[in-house]
Amino acid sequence: MAMTMHVDIVSAEAEIFSGTAEMLVAPAKMGEVGIYPRHAPMMTPLKPGEVRVVREGGQEETFYVSGGMLEVQAHTVTVLSDTALRAHDIDEAAALEAKQHAEQALKDRTGEMEFAKAQAELAEAVAQLQTIQRLRKKTKRS
Predict the structure, then answer these.
(1) 40, 50, 52 from 17: Cα distances, Å
(2) What is the CATH number of the domain that holds 67?
(3) Cα distances (Å, whole numbers) of residue 133 to 18, 73, 90, 138, 139
(4) How far is CA 61 from CA 51, 105, 139, in A?
(5) Of 63, 88, 71, 62, which Cα lies nearest the Cα of 5?
(6) Assign residue 74 a region: left if phi > 0, alpha if psi is -120 to 50, beta otherwise?
(7) Which DSSP category does 67 fall into?
(8) Both 66 and 96 in a single domain?
(9) Is the pLDDT of residue 135 over 80?
(10) Could you tell me the sign of the dihedral formed by the alpha carbons of 27, 65, 77, 21, in that order?
């Protein structure tokens, strides 16, 4: 039996996932991090992207987070995010529309705050679309 840890993925609205896992991969600000049971305690900010949870037996579940924080304790990992979704629940049409809107806002920018907001919106939309594309590739391989 493989070692496991408890993983919680929580958004501002609801708990998205709670269960045991053999490994978790998350998009930390400084680069992707892989967490295994008994990892050293740490906290790190997350950027928008894909969180992968490898369950017992190797089954992988994919989630999208809009950023947030990752907290690691010896036997527990918590992902806190304003927005967290199961990858298959992402609305591709809405993500494409958000991407186009953010790109247009970058072109039409009038102030530094608007530019920063448009950049953040673009990063989130691109991360959602990349998560959808990776999920489709995994589905085709299965």
Answers:
(1) 22, 14, 11
(2) 2.60.15.10
(3) 25, 31, 11, 9, 10
(4) 8, 34, 12
(5) 71
(6) alpha
(7) S
(8) no
(9) no
(10) negative
Name the residue range of residue 137's domain.
91-141
Widest distance between CA atoms in the chain: 58
Name, of 5-9, 82-86, 118-122, 127-131, the range with top average pLDDT: 5-9
Give the domain CATH number at 128.
Answer: 1.20.5
The residue among 60, 79, 89, 69 whose CA lies nearest residue 15 is 79
pLDDT (tens digit per residue) in 11-67: 988 899 999 999 999 999 999 999 999 999 999 999 998 999 999 888 999 999 988
Residue type at 98 in one-letter notation: A
How confident is the model at residue 82, as a pLDDT?
87
What is the phi/psi pair of residue 10, to 5°?
-130, 135
Q: Which two tokens stand for residue 137?
A: 């590739």
What span, in angstroms and rounded, lies between the C-alpha atoms of 72 and 37?
A: 10
- Name residue 132's amino acid: I
Overall domain count for the chain? 2
Tell me which DSSP letter residue 58 carries. G
